[in-house]
Design a protein that fits this description.
This protein is α/β, with parallel strands linked by helices. Helices cover 40% and strands 25% of the residues. It folds into 2 domains: 125 residues, ATPase, nucleotide binding domain (Nucleotidyltransferase, domain 5); 186 residues, Hexokinase, domain 1. It has 13 helices and 13 strands.
Length: 323
């Protein structure tokens, strides 16, 4: 049978057409698109199908989306797209369509990664059948928790990126006050995302000069930091510490003694900074709970196709249940 898997983020959409047969699977075609070039997901899928040389009836689709999935529908958190399972099914004559949260799909994909797909930040000790936390940092901030029950993953989706941001030091508290003055609802995602890095940079620039800072993209900020620009280095340094503190908060909240995993476009751009030690210092700066965070394995996932792997795993599990 033929199936579509997709990973729809705030910036990019990745889509694959796959064939599943007798326990085997094959990728027939795979593409990535910039969402800003499209008005909705249907237009992306249509271009994918039009550009594919494969003309086959698609029977199933699993689409990972950056937002809360409720009753087969989702509004992408950082994109003006609304998606429904029924709408995709009707538009493309796909009998079975499943929408899942993107971080939930990522959790399913972890078991299909190779050793070289991980960068270890803290070895720790992974306890069996205990919670695993996945944090996604890109256009937004996502998190989910997974436990294994008799080897089978159980997912608990979350919108933890939209809880209030808690500063870890005076500079972070000043950043919070700066964002309050701009009448923002300062959530974790407001600070710890691509847009959040841009806000941190603007805050530090205005603090240093007393003038409104020029707009600077997260991509440019990370590139400038790698080139040694003092202000960009300061912004990335503060961001990495704030991210480490929040990751530690989530690890404690879930007692994630099976591990914490970091994924996403921003994570890929600041890998060297994450590995420098500052992230783990903030992660483990938990007072009486430091003994707990210090034993938790922490890894960066390097494979950018994790969401697609997870969507395919969900399809694979569904087909196996039918056999």
């Amino acid at each position: 049978m033929y199936a579509l898997s997709a990973d729809i983020g705030g910036t990019n959409s990745r889509i694959r057409l796959m064939e599943f047969a007798q326990g085997d699977e094959k990728i027939l075609c795979s593409e990535q698109y910039l969402n800003k070039n499209f008005g909705d997901l249907n237009s992306v899928i249509q271009q994918f199908l039009d550009g594919s040389s494969v003309r086959l009836p698609i029977e199933h689709a699993c689409i990972a989306v950056a937002g809360p999935v409720l009753n087969g529908a989702v509004k992408i958190t950082n994109l003006p797209w609304s998606i429904t399972e029924k709408g995709i099914s009707k538009q493309f004559a796909i009998p079975s369509v499943q929408l899942v949260n993107d971080l939930a799909a990522a959790a399913y994909g972890i078991d299909y990664l190779a050793e070289e797909d991980f960068l270890n930040l803290q070895k720790g000790i992974a306890w069996e059948n205990e919670p695993i936390v996945i944090l996604g940092v890109g256009t937004g901030f996502g998190q989910t928790m997974m436990v294994r029950n008799d080897g089978k993953p159980q997912l608990f989706a979350s919108e933890g990126g939209h809880i209030d941001f808690a500063p870890r030091n005076q500079l972070a508290a000043d950043l919070l006050g700066y964002l309050w003055q701009k009448n923002l609802n300062v959530s974790v995602e407001t600070v710890l995302s691509g847009n959040g890095l841009e806000r941190t940079y603007s805050f530090l620039a205005e603090r240093a000069t007393g003038k409104r800072a020029p707009d600077m993209s997260a991509v440019n900020i990370t590139q400038m930091a790698r080139q040694g620009d003092e202000l960009a280095v300061s912004a990335v340094t503060q961001f990495v510490g704030d991210l480490g503190a929040q990751a530690g908060n989530v690890a404690i909240s879930y007692l994630a003694t099976s591990g914490v995993y970091l994924v996403g476009g921003v994570i890929s751009a600041i890998i060297d900074n994450l590995a420098s030690g500052q992230f783990m210092e903030a992660f483990n700066d938990k007072g009486q709970m430091a003994f707990l965070t210090e034993m938790i394995p922490v890894n960066v996932i390097l494979n950018q196709s994790l969401g697609l792997l997870g969507a395919a795993a969900i399809l694979r599990n569904k087909f196996a249940a039918w056999e």
